[in-house]
Amino acid sequence: MMFGFFVLLTQLVFISGYNDPVVGIPLPKRQWKRGTLGNGRVLCIVHTAKPSHETRAKTVHDTWAKKCDDVLFFTDSPIDWSVPYVYFPTFTTRKHSWEKIRNVMRYIYKTTVGQYDWYLRADDDAFVLVENARKFLRRFDPNHNYLFGFRWGFYEQKGFADGSTYVLSWKALESFVNVIYDEAVCPEFHRAEEDQELSRCLGKIGITPTDSRDNDGRDRFHQFHPEEHLDEGRELFMSRHGYYRYFGVSSLVFETI
User: Fold this and answer.
1) Could you tell me the pTM of the whole model?
2) Within its chain, how far is the Cα of 161 from the centroid?
3) The domain containing residue 39 runs over which residues?
4) CATH code, 203
5) How far apart (Å, rounded) are the C-alpha atoms in residues 176 and 230?
6) Per-residue pLDDT for the chain (257 aa), expressed as one digit of tens each?
7) For the chain, what is the domain count?
8) Domain-embedded: residue 98
9) Is residue 253 part of a domain?
10) Buried-most residue among 99, 126, 225, 256 (CB within 10 A)?
């Protein structure tokens, strides 16, 4: 009896490391059902922080986020204007990024079951061409495991998806949430590079970044400002560390996401 109690107590202590965010304004409850191949709903998930609420976050909300089916901001403190958001008052620095994304993805999975097909996560300084994302995603079945994003060629043997903007299918989100509690797969610790940790975690269960290049081999996802692609030092860095061939400024194609 005491052994069983000890096991239960251990499990409770272990689970206590996972904190649901404080809900500021919840996502609307939708009556639609998840689509199938070619007809997917997109939830945009935007990472921001208090200093950017009135600037970057508002700009995102007023521009490209309007083309998502819904948008949810996750941050470190309450937002003073009307938008669906959650916040983590105890995760207030960049080094908590891995903890935040684990918890926000778990929260989203629990509260939006059956509503969305694709989960597009972006930083508040990103500009996403949502219409291009939709066009690209139409060819894929969200009921299969997919991770899309700019693919770096280091850290993981099969690369990792850059955190500035990446997309998870419904099935990949479910697969991720199913192993969140497994310390051997998704260990919990302070780390700023949540993109590397998410890709490593998914890689352990056989989910690696899917090739998202166009027909000419150019990346659809980009992690730098367009002007930075003109920098020779940046070009050298990208050529060395990108997973695929780097085309310089000509990689900024019409199909860019």
Assistant:
1) 0.86
2) 9
3) 15-211
4) 3.90.550.50
5) 37
6) 443 433 333 333 334 456 789 999 999 998 887 776 667 899 999 999 999 999 999 999 999 999 999 999 999 999 999 999 999 987 666 667 788 888 999 999 999 988 999 999 999 999 999 999 999 999 999 999 999 988 776 666 676 676 588 999 999 999 999 998 888 888 877 655 777 888 888 999 999 999 999 999 988 888 777 776 666 767 777 767 667 787 777 677 788 98
7) 1
8) yes
9) no
10) 99
